[in-house]
Amino acid sequence: MKSLFYVSVAVLTICAGGAAAEPRNDTPHALACMKKYGFTYAQWRAYSVPAEKAEPYRLCRDAGTGEGRTFNSCLSKAGVTPQQWHNRQASLAQGANVRDCIAVHGESISVRRRDGSTL
């Protein structure tokens, strides 16, 4: 009986962690980004948004959060747009500048080169 309790706690912990994986998508800022990229909240919830719309939407949505503002601020300081970053068009020096800028804010990221290795 005790092991069943621990298993159920572990399952609930795993499930609860997945819910916090992405920022909320029903905020006014997120809904405005959805409108900008041409889909609705219902389509997002139904997982019917194609990847070519979902990625720029996430960049737009995350620009409204503290984490997104830090990241976008570091991108602009390095002279890279979010779309260039997403398409891996930044130079090695720009990638290193973004990584160092984010480290100053107490976060860390792994910058991948075009060949897949990390910087």
Task: Explain this structure.
The protein has 7 helices and no strands. The mean pLDDT is 79. α5 crosses α7 (92-104). It is mainly α. Keywords: Signal. Residues 1-21 form the signal peptide.
Structural class: mainly alpha
Q: Could you tell me the radius of gyration in angstroms?
A: 18 Å
Q: Outline the low-pLDDT stretches.
A: none
Sheet-strand content, in percent, reads under 5%
Helix content: 55-70%
DSSP, total strands: 0
Average residue pLDDT:
79
From the spread of the alpha carbons, the general shape counts as extended
Q: What's a concise summary of this model?
A:
With 119 residues, the protein is an all-alpha fold. It has seven helices and no strands. Helix 5 crosses helix 7.
How are the secondary structure elements laid out?
Blueprint: H1 2-19, H2 28-36, H3 41-45, H4 51-62, H5 66-78, H6 82-86, H7 92-104
Keywords: Signal
Signal peptide: 1-21
